[in-house]
Design a protein that fits this description.
The chain is an alpha/beta fold and 226 residues long. The protein has helices at 6-17, 31-36, 56-65, 79-88, 100-111, 119-126, 138-148, 153-160, 164-180, 188-197, and strands at residues 22-24, 43-47, 69-74, 92-95, 220-223. Helix 4 links the parallel strand 3 and strand 4. Helix 8 (153-160) packs across helix 9 (164-180).
């Protein structure tokens, strides 16, 4: 866990002490200090504001480069900083006022490599004016929504009446379009997040809405071995 105040760390440690599959393996006041310990970890619970002058986007990106996922842990009063973390690829946002169950569920979800779909994460994305629009044809939209929802290439192909090879070519085009917009999609999780960001899949807690008009759119947690 990365937090420059000890009390949140103590709180998370207390919560995880009762979880047989989760362990707080280390903590530090900075991301650099955490990584310097050289301890293997799956997820970092990251405080949104740190006193070392780093931005949430910088910290999320640095940890992602090390192969470590992040969950931002915040009181939620800084929407600009939340958007910075969301754009950098954090797996989710959890409020410090959340219940113990919600916090544990978020950590487990992130540790499994899935996005933590809280309303706070969705709101950070929904209010971001800087997300560059990506124009997808109806067919590419269908491929993205099916694949990002968990289908395999073969499954998407069967649903659309095309081959898996054609689906993979479609996915290549989708990734190229997002990369050109400065919004890379290296993993299936990235594709899922882009689909949520652009309205192809519904935001958490909301029913699916009609497809939007794209022409006008502008510390460390280790899992105990089982």
């Amino acid at each position: 866990m990365v937090d420059d105040h000890p009390s949140p760390v103590w709180g998370i440690e207390r919560i995880l002490d009762r979880q047989p599959d989760l362990e707080l393996v280390c903590s530090a006041s900075t991301v650099g200090g955490l990584l310097a310990q050289g301890i293997a970890m799956d997820i970092v619970i990251l405080d949104l504001r740190l006193d070392d002058g780093t931005s949430p986007g910088e910290n999320v990106a640095r940890l992602t480069e090390e192969g470590i996922g992040t969950v931002v842990y915040t009181s939620g009063e800084h929407p600009v900083l939340l958007r910075s973390a969301a754009r950098a690829g954090t797996l989710g946002v959890v409020l410090k006022s959340a219940s113990e169950g919600e916090i544990v569920d978020a950590i487990r979800t992130a540790a499994s490599g899935h996005a933590v779909l809280t309303t706070e994460w969705a709101a950070a994305i929904d209010a971001d004016p800087d997300l560059a629009a990506v124009d997808l044809s109806p067919q590419l939209q269908r491929v993205l929504t099916l694949y990002a929802s968990g289908e395999t290439s073969a499954g998407v192909g069967a649903a659309l009446g095309v081959t898996a090879e054609t689906v993979n070519e479609y996915l290549k085009r989708i990734r190229q379009k997002y990369a050109a917009a400065g919004r890379p999609t290296r993993t299936k999780l990235d594709l899922f997040k882009r689909a949520v960001e652009d309205g192809w899949l519904p935001l958490p807690g909301r029913r699916p809405a009609p497809a939007p008009d794209r022409s006008s759119r502008r510390g460390g947690i280790g899992r105990t071995p089982e």
